[in-house]
Design brief:
Layout: E1 20-22, H1 27-36, E2 40-43, E3 58-61, E4 69-72, E5 77-81, H2 86-95, E6 98-99, H3 111-116, E7 133-139, E8 145-149, H4 155-158, E9 167-174, E10 176-177, E11 180-190, H5 191-196, H6 198-202, E12 207-212, E13 218-227, H7 234-237, E14 244-245, E15 269-270, E16 290-297, H8 301-310, H9 312-315, E17 319-327, E18 342-349, H10 353-367, E19 373-374, H11 384-388, H12 394-404, H13 413-418
Parallel strand pairs: 1-3, 2-3
Antiparallel strand pairs: 4-5, 5-9, 6-10, 7-8, 7-9, 11-13, 11-14, 11-15, 12-13, 12-17, 16-18, 16-19, 17-18
GO cellular component, one term: membrane
Organism: Glutamicibacter mishrai
Protein name: FAD-binding protein
C-alpha cells in the first residue's frame, strides 16, 4: 500500500522513509513482491531504535501472513512463522507442555526480528535467542525460496543476518520440556560485594538481571529468576550482599508500576510468564525511550562495570535505567557473543536522541579495551571499520550476503554504513 503518512518505530524516535508498506498474505504473494521490488526491507515488531529496518522504497510486513506454530514432540523442535511474537509462541508452547530455553525482556518482539539481530535473554548457561534456531527458511532477492539447517557449513552465517540475506519466512527452534520459575527481586545490594562475588551472583539463578543508574554504591534492583527445583543461593536471602527482598511487585524504572511486570515475590509459575520482564498485555518498559546495548567478554565483567560507574557523571543524567546480564558463547557469525561468554550492558535512555548520540562515543571509548560489540538493533556510534575488527567472521558474512543478494536488493543505509562500508 502507498504510504499517506510515515510509519514510526516502537519508541517513536524513528520515522520510516518507505514509499510503500506491503502486507503479503501468502508465500506466493511475498515472493512476487520481493521479486518486483528494487529495494526492500522487512518491518517486524518495530522494536529497533536505529534504521536497521528502514528504506526509502519498499517495506514488507509479515503481520498478515498465516501464523504457524508446528510442534514436533519427537524431534523436540517447533517450526514457526517469522512474524509471530515470542509472547504468542510461548503461550502455545507452554499449553503443549514445552518451552524455549530463554526469552528476552519483552515478549512483544517478533521471532525473526529478534533472531536476526542477536537479541538475548539472560543466564550464564544460556545462549541468545538465535542459538535455538536449527533451520531458516528465506525468500531470496529473485523471489526463490531457500531452506538451510545446521548441516549446512555456512548455517551460522544465516541466523543473525540483519535482514541482509532475504526475508525470513519460517524458523525451526529447539524446545525443551516446560518448567516453572520463581522470580524474586532484591533491592539495594552493595556494588562492592556484588562485584567481589560476581560469578556467584550470576550462578545463583536461571536468569539474573542487575538494574542500576551507575551512580552510588548500591545496585538498584537484582532480579533472580530461579527454576523451580534448582538450589537456592542462601547468601542473597541472608543478606550477605546487603539489601532485602522486595515486598511488592517492582518495575525496573523508579516509580513505575510493577503490576505490568512478570509476577514476582517468589510465586512459582510457568516459564512463559516469568522469563520476560514484562507482561504481554501491557506496554513494556517506558515506551517513550531510547536503547543502547554492548556485549562484553565475560572475563572483563568487573572492569567494564567499573568503567561505566566511573562514567556516571556523563551517563546518569540521560539514563532511565541500565541492566547487566550474562549470556553464553555461541558460533553465530554476527552474534554479540560469537566465540565468547559475555555480559550485556544495556542502557534505557530518556528520549533525548541528540544528547544520547553525543555521549555514545564516550561510552564506546570507555568500553573499547574490552572489545565491546554493540547490539545491532539499538543506538551505537561504531562504524563498519570498527565492527569489522570485533567479528572474526565479519568478512565471511559479507561474502555470503554478496553471493545471495549480488545486486544489493536488501541493503539499506544501515547495512552500507555498518557492514558493507568496511
Amino acid at each position: 500500500m502507498e504510504l499517506e503518512t510515515k510509519e514510526l518505530n516502537w519508541a517513536g524516535n524513528l520515522e520510516y522513509r518507505a514509499s510503500e508498506l506491503l502486507y503479503p498474505t501468502s508465500i506466493e504473494q511475498l515472493q512476487e513482491q520481493v521479486r518486483a521490488a528494487r529495494k526492500v526491507r522487512v518491518l517486524g515488531s518495530r522494536h529497533s531504535f536505529n534504521d536497521i529496518a528502514d528504506t526509502s522504497e519498499t517495506m514488507i510486513s509479515l503481520a498478515k501472513m498465516p501464523q504457524v506454530i508446528d510442534i514436533d514432540a519427537q524431534a523436540m523442535n517447533v517450526r514457526v512463522s517469522g512474524g509471530i511474537t515470542y509472547g504468542a509462541l510461548a503461550d502455545a508452547l507452554h499449553a503443549a507442555g514445552f518451552a524455549l530455553h530463554n526469552l528476552a525482556s519483552l515478549p512483544h518482539i517478533s521471532v525473526a526480528g529478534a533472531v536476526s539481530t542477536g537479541t538475548h535473554g539472560s543466564g550464564e548457561a544460556h545462549g541468545n535467542l538465535a542459538t535455538a534456531v536449527s533451520a531458516v527458511e528465506l525468500v531470496l532477492a529473485d523471489g526463490s525460496q531457500l531452506s538451510v539447517n545446521r548441516n549446512d557449513p555456512e548455517f551460522n552465517g544465516y541466523v543473525v543476518s540483519l535482514g541482509a540475506l532475504g526475508v525470513i519466512t519460517h524458523l525451526t527452534l529447539d524446545i525443551v520440556p516446560s518448567f516453572d520459575v520463581q522470580q524474586t527481586v532484591y533491592e539495594q545490594l552493595s556494588w562492592d560485594k556484588v562485584l567481589d562475588s560476581f560469578d556467584g551472583i550470576q550462578a545463583s539463578a536461571y536468569s539474573v538481571s542487575l538494574f542500576t543508574d551507575w551512580s552510588g554504591d548500591l545496585v538498584g534492583q537484582t532480579w533472580l529468576k530461579r527454576r523451580v527445583g534448582d538450589a537456592l543461593l542462601d547468601d542473597i536471602d541472608q543478606g550477605k550482599f546487603g539489601g532485602l527482598a522486595a515486598i511488592a511487585p517492582m518495575h525496573p524504572l523508579p516509580g513505575a508500576d510493577g503490576a505490568i511486570c512478570s509476577e514476582q515475590l517468589g510465586v512459582a509459575g510457568p516459564w512463559s510468564d516469568r522469563l520476560s520482564h514484562f507482561r504481554m498485555d501491557f506496554m513494556p518498559s517506558a515506551g517513550d525511550e531510547l536503547q543502547t546495548e554492548y556485549l562484553v567478554p565475560r572475563e572483563y565483567a568487573v572492569q567494564a562495570i567499573t568503567a561505566m560507574r566511573e562514567l556516571s557523571s556523563v551517563i546518569t543524567p540521560l539514563l532511565l535505567v541500565a541492566e547487566v546480564r550474562t549470556i553464553a558463547a555461541d558460533e553465530l557469525w554476527l552474534s554479540g557473543n560469537y566465540g565468547r561468554d559475555g555480559i550485556a550492558l544495556h542502557f534505557t535512555w530518556k528520549p533525548q536522541q541528540q544528547e544520547v548520540e553525543t555521549i555514545l562515543p564516550h561510552v564506546e571509548s570507555a568500553l573499547a579495551p574490552f572489545a565491546a560489540r554493540p547490539h545491532w538493533g539499538k543506538l551505537f556510534a561504531a562504524t563498519s571499520t570498527d565492527l569489522q575488527k570485533l567479528y572474526p567472521k565479519f568478512n565471511d558474512f559479507i561474502e555470503l550476503a554478496q553471493r545471495l543478494d549480488p545486486a544489493g536488493k536488501f541493503r539499506n543505509e544501515f547495512l552500507n554504513r555498518n557492514l558493507f562500508g568496511a
